[in-house]
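User: Sequence recovery, please. Input:
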């Protein structure tokens, strides 16, 4: 049997809340601006590979500029001292979290005993930043067929207000696919959200629990190509469970970046 430990975190840059789940790993460390570092109380579930038990989720509000640290046991554990001492030593190294992240990481690694060679060491740090309200579009749609057209209209108007006209056609097409899937396979009202940051992220929420499954349509099929199209046109896409259903999302690069958009017409033709 192969086992692995893991901490999984999902940060919502609009609500500024982060959801954690722990599979037998060491606790995340949080440093809020002007406060001392503390270990978050995220119940350690069973390691991955054991199975049989659901993971408990913990939601924490993270203020602007908060520092989050994730790490492996090789950073804090050795034969020379108990684990508790290593954890406290690690927490104490985060006394000045306002420095650039690379400097904070260097300080931690230079301060702690990281040369014992007993285990691999990994240290991941993030400083959270919320999205301003003007970078968010958020709409609730009734569960009815005309919501597909409304979703396209909302997306187009929002992108034009952001001067993102090159993204309009692709976004409209993919929004249409996801909202149609939510109507066809989901439950309850539908929520559409656009987030403008270093990329454009689109999220479609509904109350259904069934996760989308990408399949390859046959040449004679009239439908079934929606998620294939999402995969072809987006830089990334996926789905995740929420406390009240699921979210399906996709990401597009912004105009002028290193990654160029795929032409929607070419993508459509490639599916047949």
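Assistant: Recovered sequence (272 residues):
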């Amino acid at each position: 049997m192969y086992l692995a430990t893991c901490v999984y975190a999902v940060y919502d840059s609009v609500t500024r809340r982060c959801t954690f789940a722990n599979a037998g790993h060491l606790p995340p460390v949080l440093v809020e601006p002007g406060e001392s570092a503390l270990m978050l109380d995220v119940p350690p579930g069973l390691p991955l590979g054991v199975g049989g038990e659901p993971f408990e989720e913990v939601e924490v509000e993270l203020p602007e500029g908060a520092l989050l640290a994730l790490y492996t046991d090789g950073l804090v554990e050795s034969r020379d001292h108990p684990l508790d001492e290593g954890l406290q030593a690690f927490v104490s190294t985060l006394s000045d979290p306002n420095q650039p992240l690379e400097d904070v990481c260097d300080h931690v690694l230079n301060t702690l005993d990281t040369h014992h060679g007993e285990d691999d060491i990994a240290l991941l740090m993030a400083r959270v930043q919320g999205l301003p309200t003007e970078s968010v579009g958020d709409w609730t749609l009734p569960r009815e067929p005309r919501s597909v057209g409304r979703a396209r209209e909302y997306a187009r108007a929002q992108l034009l207000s952001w001067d993102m006209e090159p993204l309009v056609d692709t976004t409209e097409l993919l929004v249409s696919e996801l909202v149609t899937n939510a109507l066809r396979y989901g439950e309850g009202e539908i929520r559409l959200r656009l987030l403008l940051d270093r990329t454009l992220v689109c999220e479609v929420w509904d109350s259904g629990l069934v996760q989308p499954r990408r399949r390859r349509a046959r040449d004679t099929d009239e439908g079934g190509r929606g998620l294939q199209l999402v995969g072809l046109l987006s830089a990334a896409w996926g789905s995740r469970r929420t406390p009240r259903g699921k979210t399906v999302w996709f990401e597009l690069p912004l105009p002028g970046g290193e990654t160029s958009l795929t032409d929607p017409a070419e993508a459509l033709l490639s599916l047949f």
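The mean pLDDT is 88.
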